[in-house]
Amino acid sequence: MSKIPIMLKSNGNWDNYGRFRDFEVDAIVVDDNANYGILSSTIAEQLSIDTSDKIIEIKYIVNENCPPMEIRNDMGVRAYMETKKENKNLGSYPLCISVRDFNMELAINNESTSAGSSGSLNLLEFPSSPAIEEYQSEIITESTQTYIEEGQVYQDKQTVAAAMKNYSVMHKFQFRVKRSSHRSYWLICVAESCKWHFKATSINDSAIFKIRSFSRQHTCCLMDETFIQRKRTAAVLGSMVVPKYCDPKTVYTPKDIQTDMLSEHGLNLSYMQAWRAKEKALQFLRGNPCDSYNKLPKYFYILEKNYPGSVVKLKKAADDCFLYAFVALCTSINGWQHCRPVVVVDGTFLKSAYRGIMLTASTMDATGTIFPLAYAVVDSENDASWKWFFEQFKEAYGERPSMCVVSDRHESILKATSVVYPGLAHYSCMWHIWTNIRSKFKKGHLQLHELYFATARSYTMDEFNERMLKIEEVDLRVKSYLYDIGYHRWSRVHATVNRTFTMTSNIAESLNAVTKDARELPILDLFEYMRTLLERWTKEKLSKAKVTFTYLGHKYNKELEDNSTLSQKLRVRASTDHIHIVLDGVKRYIVCLENKKCSCGQFQLDELPCAHALAALRHRNETYENYCSPYYTRKSLLLTY
Prior knowledge:
Helix content is 39%, strand content 21%. It is built from 24 helices and 26 strands. Strand 23 and strand 24 (579-584) form a beta hairpin. Helix 16 (461-474) packs across helix 17 (476-485). The chain is elongated. Mean pLDDT is 84; it is low at 102-131 and 223-231.
């Protein structure tokens, strides 16, 4: 028995002329009587290849006129050794090593009308032939098969390989690949004396594989060290926990993986193993974050085709890298005409690999709930990104009379709106101003809190001035701060454009809360999540609208009912056909039904009959329908969706 030195060429690729190119060089020494198992394991050890996760292809070139010879079994090794003995130089007949993954491509398809759903596995299309059609009803497409037996048919070799890896983990044993090609997949136990084996081959040279032979009984010692030291690859464990991560809202930590693997499969994982399994599962589901950006142009093209009339924009930097992306779906553009033109904008950070900011614009529908208008991904909240966002928004939605914007007073938003929408009213979120007061003046006590919000919501100048005096008594600095901002920015009674009930940017914050977990997704999945979210909301709200039988949407109908209850104790004195004096104890209010105004201020600012107006209407035996804003009605709700 003699030693044979062999040169290894790895990490290269085969060209069209049967030549191995761009390789790295290494070497091994083996006995001349080595078998296929010894040769492949020696190569794997030298090149640090995990054979439980990879398939090794061993080829060599006899001469330039012959295609590469592949070593697949012991006979192939013997033929190579006899050839090599003729010239034992290290550089003669080098082995060209190629490595392939067990490619567990778990493509998740969100249903077209549900966001955050568990998704479904993307099935392959099989070539039609009589031999294959007889198996069509029994083809296994999932790698998480718990029971494996002879005669089972799998959609492809990759699914068989993944299923066997899961099976080995569940039954706590280790196998090695004896032979693997596009036609066959042959496994044996790592213990040389064990009779356990598994063999599957393709059906009529198709992609479909059938299990031909499976001896499930092990004849090796179960306490063998190869059993105890079994390495569970992250790919196998990751494929087992993939279903847990289909919904971005699901919280499933490495600690949970440890617990479940121990209780369900008896596997005692370290935290790092569980963490790697989680990362692999997310990789199977979401792919490479970089690839997600490359797919955006195709995705936007399909989006425009399926949603004609949508405004979808993608902007690249000078170096052809991603910069901004904007989406306004036609369903939102059409519904916008039936909502009050109050736009709430906000930005929130992304938690994916490349970070960034998601900008959103929303309004309120006839039920007083959020109606998303547009969403975009940009590099950061800066002058350029907000300006670009509002330019695309204007292209999609134009400009309407009495339109205004509500935001958190970010400087870039103020600059962008003044450039893109000159003269547009811009209001500040009440909560944002209160947060600044607390941090700036260390004033957060209940009295000041109640005074500030009551002042902002005041319906008359008298109420406003009275409450501002009380704020001055508490802290003069707070009054000066509110004055410097500009009363028209935050006070309802000073507003130049009536924004009715939209005093905060809460609807934008609500959207941020809904998308909290989705903001970890790659950019393509994030855009798809937003699309399916809007689709689901549209269907749900339309269904609710169809079974709504009140004249007004839910929120405004409840407000009207409360006012109606208060109106029961009021007395009315008619002065003219449209002007009435309404007495509330010692107070009296003047209601002008023709102009839809009341001296309390609520009728004209809420655009909904106040208690005094309802008392006047009851005195005239007249209904309230003609005195409510059309944006609050069931008709507008149906038209919106």
